[in-house]
Amino acid sequence: MQTLTLSNRQRAVRFDLSWLRRVARLGLEKACEISADGRFALKELPEIEVAVVSDRVIARVHEQFMNLPEPTDVITFEHGEIVVSAETALSNAPLYGHCVEEELALYVIHGFLHLNGFEDGTKREAARMHKVQGEILAGCLASAGSPRNRPAVPPQ
Questions:
Q1: 20 to 30 A Cα–Cα from 105, which one of 38, 51, 113, 146?
Q2: How far apart are CA 9 and CA 121, in angstroms?
Q3: What CATH number is attached to the domain comprising 121?
């Protein structure tokens, strides 16, 4: 079994880290079985590291590696590192009817799918990827339940 490390490296947004770790493990298992390019590269990675960071940090990473100086939701590196923004998740969650944990889980699943050959550069690729990540998230929520007892609001 692969090593999956998920760490919270920000303080701006409170969320249930243990729930997110459970869902990430479930999502990894499901994502390993679906490859867009037939290579199943995700299965070959011995370790996957997910870091939940602030918008400031992800903007720095985004600029350094993609020459885009703004924050984004998720950045995936082919060696198995996934960086997700808690603040972006907090902003986007209400738009999509999610709590912040569900939005973060979606970003993590999105990263897993990138590692398994999915792309979202065209409308067609994005539609396919969004469909698959939505199905995986729904399966994870069916297994792990939803932490919806916590609203997507910033900490006091």
A1: 38
A2: 28
A3: 3.40.390.30
